[in-house]
Specification:
Order of helices and strands: HEEHHHHHHH
Number of helices: 8
Distance between the termini: 34 Å
CATH topology: Arp2/3 complex 21 kDa subunit ARPC3
Number of strands: 2
CATH architecture: Orthogonal Bundle
Number of domains: 1
Oligomer: single chain
Strand order of the largest sheet: 1-2
Shape: globular
Largest sheet: 2 strands, antiparallel
Helix content: 55-70%
């Protein structure tokens, strides 16, 4: 296995783990007041979710749109599979000596059908939009301005994701319609803020990895290492 292949598997693993964990931990909520300006009251399930967009942006940059789409589909399959396992585990009865009761397990891991469905639909829509907007900006800027395609694609896709989830949950009656506006603003602002924070990580990953493994159009040797040791392909000076 080449270096390029190993890195792809690692990125795909991080993506799938982050996505699956979102649906497992979403029932706990916390509050956060950055710089004392605004208080977010959000599910802990939102914490690993921005990682999925960072990873798909890295994969899009280094491996292309097709590979990014493949990871998104793999993440969906993994999420559905884990959800089915959780439903099965929730259905079987506990033993008399089980340290975790049926009630406790259901309270922690019990999955709300409409909530999971809404999450999956929003996930697919947002990720595919993110990947396509990313490559749109990459083509428009001729491979320059990493910050633009990173943030430009993520901000739009996060709005789609947040809006789609809330729209479906309100339609199913899981959330009252009067809460739609506040929850949309709350969730979207948090995701945008995190997207800005992960921009340096995106730059660091691309600048370090691109000269070593190249991108989808770069020549590589038998070990998967980029044979063009010049400046990172498709990039100009750090100021651009």
């Amino acid at each position: 296995m080449t270096l390029r292949d190993r890195l792809f598997l690692i990125l795909a693993g991080i993506f799938i783990a982050s996505l699956v964990s979102c649906n497992l931990i979403f029932q706990k909520f916390f509050s956060w007041t950055p710089f004392g300006l605004y208080t977010f009251e959000i599910s802990v399930g939102i914490l690993p979710y921005p990682i999925t967009f960072l990873v798909t942006d890295i994969i899009s940059e280094l491996y292309g749109k097709r590979k990014a789409d493949q990871v998104v589909i793999s993440g969906l399959v993994a999420s559905v599979f884990v959800s089915l396992l959780v439903l099965l585990a929730n259905a079987v009865p506990q033993t008399s000596w089980s340290p975790v009761s049926n009630e406790t397990f259901s309270a922690v891991f019990g999955l709300n059908g409409p909530a999971v469905f809404a999450s999956m639909i929003a996930y697919l829509s947002a990720q595919f939009i993110d990947i396509r907007i990313f490559h749109f900006w990459k083509k428009m800027t001729k491979g320059k301005h990493l910050w633009l395609r990173n943030n430009g694609s993520t901000i739009v896709s996060q709005l789609v994701d947040t809006g789609a989830v809330l729209l479906l949950l309100c339609s199913f009656g899981v959330i009252e319609w009067e809460r739609f506006g506040g929850l949309l603003l709350n969730g979207f602002l948090f995701k945008v803020l995190v997207a800005f924070f992960d921009t340096p990580l995106f730059y660091a990953a691309v600048w370090y990895l691109k000269p070593r493994i190249g991108d989808e159009n770069s020549p590589v040797d038998a070990r998967g290492e980029c044979t063009d040791k010049r400046e990172a392909p498709g990039e100009s000076s750090p100021g651009e």
